[in-house]
C-alpha cells in the first residue's frame, strides 16, 4: 500500500497472505530495518472478562489484553498486523504502550518474510500445538 494510503500508525508496508505457520500471515512488502516500529493493531476495546468469554473454545482469536482490565478485539479490524503469527524465534516483538498494540522489528526483515512475534502466554494454556517450525520450537502455545 503506498505511503499516502496507509494509516499513520502503519509505518511499513505489509501484505496479508497464506502462511506456512497458520492460516494467513503478515508479510513485509518493503525492507524493515531493526528496532523500528512496523505498525499497530486497532480494534474494539472490551473488558478482559468479555475477551476471555469471546476466546473460549476458539482456536483463532485476534484479542490482546492491554491491561488487567482492558483488551482489544481486532477480529473486525482492517489492520494487516492482526494477522501476525507466533514464532518461537520471532523477527518482531509486540509492545503494549498506553493501551496500544504496537509491533517493532527485532532484526532486519526482508521483502517477502513473514512478520512474527512470540505470543508469550495465551488463552490456549499450552494446549494448542505450535506450528512455527523454528529450531528449538517449544511445541505448544
TrEMBL record:
Domain of life: Bacteria
Main location: cytoplasm
PANTHER family (alphabetical): SET DOMAIN PROTEINS
Keywords carried by this UniProt record: Chromosome, Methyltransferase, S-adenosyl-L-methionine, Transferase
Residue span(s) of domain SET: 12-120
Keyword Metal-binding recorded: no
Entry annotated with the keyword Transmembrane helix: no
Gene3D superfamilies: SET domain
Source taxonomy: Bacteria, Pseudomonadati, Pseudomonadota, Betaproteobacteria, Burkholderiales
PROSITE patterns per UniProt: SET
Localization of this protein: Chromosome
Pfam families in alphabetical order: SET
Annotated protein name in UniProt: SET domain-containing protein-lysine N-methyltransferase
InterPro entries on file: SET2_Histone-Lys_MeTrsfase, SET_dom, SET_dom_sf
Amino acid at each position: 500500500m503506498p505511503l499516502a494510503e496507509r494509516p499513520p500508525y502503519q509505518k511499513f508496508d505489509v501484505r496479508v497472505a497464506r502462511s506456512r505457520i497458520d492460516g494467513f500471515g503478515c508479510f513485509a512488502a518493503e525492507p524493515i530495518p531493526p528496532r523500528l516500529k512496523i505498525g499497530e493493531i486497532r480494534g474494539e476495546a472490551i473488558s478482559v472478562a468479555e475477551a476471555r468469554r469471546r476466546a473460549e473454545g476458539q482456536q483463532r482469536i485476534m484479542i490482546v489484553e492491554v491491561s488487567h482490565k482492558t483488551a482489544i478485539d481486532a477480529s473486525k479490524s482492517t489492520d494487516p498486523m492482526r494477522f501476525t503469527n507466533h514464532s518461537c524465534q520471532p523477527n518482531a516483538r509486540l509492545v503494549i504502550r498506553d493501551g496500544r498494540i504496537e509491533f517493532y522489528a527485532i532484526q532486519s526483515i526482508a521483502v517477502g518474510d513473514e512478520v512474527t512475534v512470540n505470543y508469550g502466554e495465551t488463552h490456549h494454556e499450552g494446549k494448542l500445538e505450535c506450528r512455527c517450525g523454528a529450531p528449538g520450537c517449544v511445541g505448544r502455545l
